[in-house]
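worker-03 picked up job from queue 'complexes'. Input manifest follows; two sequence lines, order preserved.
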Amino acid sequence: MVAAPQKTLTISLFITLNLISILPLLTFSFNPDEPTNRQILVLLDDLSLRSSHSIFFSSLQSRGFNLDFKLAQDPAISVKRYGQYLYDGLILFSPSTDRFGGSLDLEGVLDFVDSGHDLILAADSNASDLIRNIAAECGVDFDEDTSAVVIDHTGYAVSETEGDHSLIAADDFIQSGVILGSKTIEAPVIFKGIGHSLNPENSLVLKVLSASSSAYSANPTSKLSSPPSLTGTSISLVSVVQARNNARIMISGSLDMFSNRLFRSGVEKIGSLKKHGKSGNQQFATEISKWVFHERGHLKAVNLKHNKVGETGEPAIYRINDDLEFSVEIFEWSGASWVPYVADDVQVQFYMMSPYVLKTLSTNQKGLYHTSFKVPDVYGVFQFKVEYQRLGYTTLSLSKQSPVRPFKHNEYERFITTAFPYYGASFSTMIGFFIFSIVYLYNK
Amino acid sequence: MSAPETLQSTALRHAFGNVLSFFILLLIGVLAFSIRLFSVIKYESVIHEFDPYFNYRVTQFLIKNGVYDFWNWFDDRTWYPLGRVIGGTVYPGLTLTAGALWRIFHSLNIPLSVETVCVFTAPIFSAFASWAAYLLTKEVKGTGAGLTAAVLLSMVPSYISRSVAGSYDNEAVAIFALIFTFYLYIKTLNTGSLFYATLNAIAYFYMVCSWGGYTFIINLIPMHVLLCIVTGRYSPRLYIAYAPLYLRKMQVVLGTLLASLVPVVGFNAVMTSEHFASFLVFIIIHVVALVYYIKGILTPQMFKVAVTLVVSVGLIVCCAALAVLIALVASSPTKGWSGRSLSLLDPTYASKYIPIIASVSEHQPPTWPSYFMDINVLAFLVPAGIIACFMPLSDASTFAVLYIVTSVYFSGVMVRLMLVLAPAACIMSGIALSEAFDVFTRSIKFQLLGATQSPQVNKAGDTNSVAKNDVVKTEISEDTLKERPSRKNKKKEKEVIEKASLVSRIEKRLLVLPLEASLIAILLLVLLGAFYVVHCVWAAAEAYSAPSIVLTTRSNNGLHVFDDFREAYAWLSHNTEVDDKVASWWDYGYQTTAMANRTVIVDNNTWNNTHIATVGTAMSSPEKAAWEIFNSLDVKYVLVVFGGFVGYPSDDINKFLWMVRIGGGVFPHIKEPDYLRDGQYRIDSQATPTMLNSLMYKLSYYRFVETDGRGFDRVRNTEIGKKYFKLTHFEEVFTTHHWMVRLYKLKPPRNRIRGKTKKSKSDLAHLCRREEKKSIKFMDLFTLVVNHR
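worker-03 finished. Artifact:
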């Protein structure tokens, strides 16, 4: 008996610990209140990358990010202190690292993402298992053949050194102004690295830059003994993932594409007549990094309100056939401030196991979306649901529970026209009985 | 000369008798109340079982918000997301009674808590029920039988099982209402007074308010009336016959009107087949009354002509009406009968068609031992009582016989209706015992006095008959007191006198038993009574006082208490969000809403079969499918009751087949044979893969092997079939002290969707190490438990 409370205590302690450990997963850590002064940890194989990729880094710094460069092997790496993450983003430009220094490992990187932080990962032809596993955990499968690179004999970029056509000029971008900016990227992106494939079932991962239909993934130095496993447009060169908690991840098969050399170099795609003085790499990298670090396409919905028509307060319960008003405000993060989000396809559901009401909200162009509708003639526990999923935007998923009750006993109509024969019958019976009684009692 | 003296002495004796019976009744009330307090003394003052928790919650709401809000209460915390209109689907009698009690106490400045009032409502009403039984039996067979019946009823185990302190359920007040309604019916029948008829209708209204068992009354009383008509008990005396029938009509009309005022009954009072009998009899009564009336005013020849005319026309009309009725009833799928009532007529109906009814153990037919357990020696006394009722046969005693016969049949269909049998058995046994004592004591008296004063014999017999026909006497006096019009009265009086003389004639003819035989017989009867008392006290103390939310076992080192249910509910109420939804099998719905105050998906009010089937399907599905079902219902937590660790037999694994059946009844992809190996339900290594992968199996046995290293289930007495497995879509958040309640949380959908690349070896090793650590920790805990047990 003595041990009993002790045991319960231990169990509950154990459970509490468990709960604590999952709590960070639930928190969303892109903190729009402190948009400036965001810390990004950059892990590099070699500190020389810092200068060879300086254009990319300085574009980030100019946008207000503090970059903390560390060697991937640095034993002092730690992303977390006292349960708090020290960084808002992580850039892994260390494709060949087998094991990170310090306390960071595969699980650490994934936890970092799962707690809502962003990640940019670049691999190249000698990508390590660690890097491949991180990518795989995010839904991106690099070609299992470790020596394979993407080759395109009809879409390569013309370069001084006549090579093996592994320097390819890719221009098959995703059609999304949110991810790649409103300005279309004119010049092809020069890519040199490994390709990956995506599971079509995976709804979270998007192919941003895919290879042309003539590309394949193989070892350029050896002769092809068997058909390559990855071919054509199924090869993705750069992909982005938006996790369910809206953490954003970019995975690229090429580290070189972020380098100053390729940023500056001109590009001429074989077969194409147009020669671009500057490759699309810089624009592509800058725009996509803006998306990854939530400078674009990040929505927030606030002030979800509902009330009966003619009232202001939110009722605890609605009655069937009530008329109600619903409003919600949606804003988009512009990189510096919240600006009203304008769209005509935001919908609200009045939902109980299935949507009973589905209405498109009208907007006042200042972020306020509103509508009004009649509560259906069904009682139950309903929810106001706003599910807004658009390409490139963060997922808005709001719900607010609001029960709907049937009529109270005194809320029905007192007299119904169709029932008048019955009223007539009962009243005439009453009168008849009365007369009958009098006649029967006093008439001898 | 001695005439006024004897009159005075009889009056004095009557006065003494009345005072004595008053005190006896008072003591019976005290006995009925106090025998039900074992649960409070042995455990604590707590609401028992499942349904009482709902009633308790409703009462709290009533007291907090008042009658109108209670009437209009839409509860959004049960049957998520459908909700339940409590005001319109609940029998409000019990709740209103307890609410009224609470209000009375508070107006007297006795600040009792709602819970206390609820706990003690049932014992209070069982005292009332004993008194009602006294009244009813007195109407049937006189005061002596009444007192005996009251004593028997005050401690009949069957009734105790439903009315111990804390068993705050509809039956607690409904049995009182039932007996009292019958009493008023008999009283009306005996007196023919409109006053009692009105009271009867009101008592019936209270019964309708309190319990679905009111259909028993609405069918039994018409049956009795019909019996009276068919046996022609009234045929020679048309107008007397008319009186109870007339009153009967009053009752039907008033009762039905009142009944339809109860929201839960509503138009069912005129729409369902259960109520057809009463209306049919209502019509028949009028036809009979009309026939007799016409017979009275017509000459015999005219009457014959009229009869042939009316019969031929009437037959045609009746056939047409019947055809329409049959067509109407047949067009509804259950023929207008509710499932529970159908299973009354056809005991196999429920198990064949409605698993949700069959799944409740109290809806199963009882076994023979349960008769002995629940009514004990009464089972042997009932036949004697029936015989006693036949000499002489009166309206009241035919009713008593009819009551016992029907209730015996119904109790044979459903264990639950044993409760209806118990009062009938008590009344019958009370009559039997009192008659027996009557005969024996009279013969002793005769033997003792007979030697000295032989002429007194006759007188003794007379007094006896007078005492015994108290009813009859009151009837006479009342009838003579009241100046009621017409010949009715005279005829009735005549009949009564005739009856009385008949009775005394029989009395005289009664055998006088030898002294020794009478003495031994009395001794044996007392012994029998003593056995009954001992059994009843034992049943009250041991068998029926457990609150079932707290369990105890006796072992070598003393009493051990299992308070896991409240532990789990307390965990829920302290560690989860207010709006979180908890899914469990429906048995635990009421408790979860009342004790943990969390929204549940299904509960013990099994009004929506599909919703229950959805939960049953989820429990019988593999993890992923189950997760999807639960997630679509916004479920956050899943509660599973598991008895394998301590040997608690009514756990979810034992109920699992019902979940499969109920789920399969609506969702045909769940098939019962998939869960059975060669028709056998097993959980060991021979179990089918479907069984081993079902959610219920996994949630019950998750980490169970860590307790003793081999996963030995103490309820099923086997080693479990699948010992080491991980949960992918659920995570364990709480397991109570004795593993009886296990709570799981639905994992959120994965933040990322993983690609197909396999993990490298080092990661796997890392994971394994972590699992190992966890299990070691639990082994430590377990050794702690084992040591202290």
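worker-03 released lock.
Residues 235-247, 453-497, 759-789 of chain B have pLDDT under 50 and may be disordered.
Chain B touches chain A at residues 71-72, 74, 76, 80-83, 85, 87, 263, 567, 571, 579, 599, 632-633, 731, 733-735, 737, 748-757, 759-760, 763, 766, 777, 781, 784-785, 787-788 (CB under 8 Å).
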